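Re: alpha-D-ribofuranose structure - here you go.
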Amino acid sequence: MKVLNFGSLNIDNVYRLHHIVRPGETIAASSNAVFAGGKGLNQSIALARAGAKVYHAGMIGKDGIFLKELLEENGVDCSFLDISNEVPSGNALIQVAEDGENSIVLFGGANQAMKAEKASQVLANFEVGDIAVLQNEISITSEVIREAHKRGLKVFFNPAPMSRDVADFPLELVDTLIVNETEMAELKKSRPQLDFCNLLLTLGSKGAVYYPKNGGQKIAVPACKVEKVVDTTGAGDTFIGYFTAELAKGLSVEICLAHASAAAANSITKAGAAVSIPFINELGF
Ligand code: RIB
């Protein structure tokens, strides 16, 4: 079974400061660093570090070659990753406060310049039973969901960052929807019934709950305790990548949730998004 992640890649500009800047306020950062990021890239790295065979489809600009190199160093197949001559890579301006919380401003760049036909071109290389992983940071999410479903792939969709148009996406074709509490509340305003697919609700420091489709028995896991939170950026992506990779190995949902939770907890003890994601052999399972 192959995992295709059709997702974003960003250059993360990270500023560490006392607190997230308030409207009208100017504050000095204690450090500034550039990291590889993007929810798509982070999830691909997590999938690969958890041991999955993962293909990343997407687009970067010439300024983002280091993003591709990082994916390749981690064993991610980048045959379906385009490099644009016209547009720059996506980027993110990230503030990380002393307590590890973050706030993010996104510029879509190449992630938002992908054309609809790329969905069918890429998915022609995948087959029934493969998994397609998606987030909400690229321009052709609906097309990819439709094409992946048509070819018999299972679609795992994380509608982050949440936007109004998510309600119009073909969610009925999704196998597993992965949301946090805010995203779920927003989605339920237009889609009150979400039991047509598996629902994985991530609750941060309170753990996660999995609701199987059609009203099956829910499965809950607590979050792992963390002594000192350094940076929560990419924790959700780590969770999703590990959960999906472990599920693709045939492990039970309960074990997948526990492993994803341990990986996410480990990631927040380090700075950065992709670079903070642990390798599976560091986690002792
Ligand atoms: O989930 C964290 C990611 O969100 C960051 O790496 C940033 O690029 C944004 O996409």
